[in-house]
Amino acid sequence: MDLPGTFYSYLGYAIAKVQGRRREGLALCQHGVKLEFYRGENYINLAGVHLLVGNRAGAVKAIFDGLQHDRRNRELQRMARKMGIRRRPIIPFLDRAHPINVWLGKVRHRLLGGI
After folding, report:
1. CA–CA–CA angle 68, 32, 20 (5° rounding)
2. How far apart are CA 113 and CA 73, in angstroms?
3. 49, 8, 57, 51: which is closest to 26 by C-alpha?
4. b/e map of 54-81 (b: 16 or more CB within 10 Å)?
5. Which segments of the chain does DSSP mark as H helices, in order?
6. Residue 20 DSSP code
7. 64-78 per-position pLDDT tens digit
8. Is 0.70 topped by the overall pTM?
């Protein structure tokens, strides 16, 4: 009997957080994402374990991957804002504060929503 991916995801986060078995927790969270890639909470738990092991880049990737599958997930959006994750400027060779990038960023935000 195969359990739902969210079960593995939450179990992995709990094992990493409470028992300090971070490698095992990370593997369980990754398995949970593999089983149910469309569930935002699996990516939240995966990002949480990455943060526990000090892997900020892994957490950012998990958040972006989660938002690809569950764009409206408020917790993923909150985590991204809390971590200071921002989209790349529309025109990368111009400064983020350049008026063209600012204007295009506002248009993108209106069309696509938050992070």
Report:
1. 115
2. 12
3. 49
4. ebeebbbebbbbbbebbeebeebbebbe
5. 5-18, 22-35, 40-52, 56-69, 74-83, 99-112
6. -
7. 999 999 888 999 999
8. yes
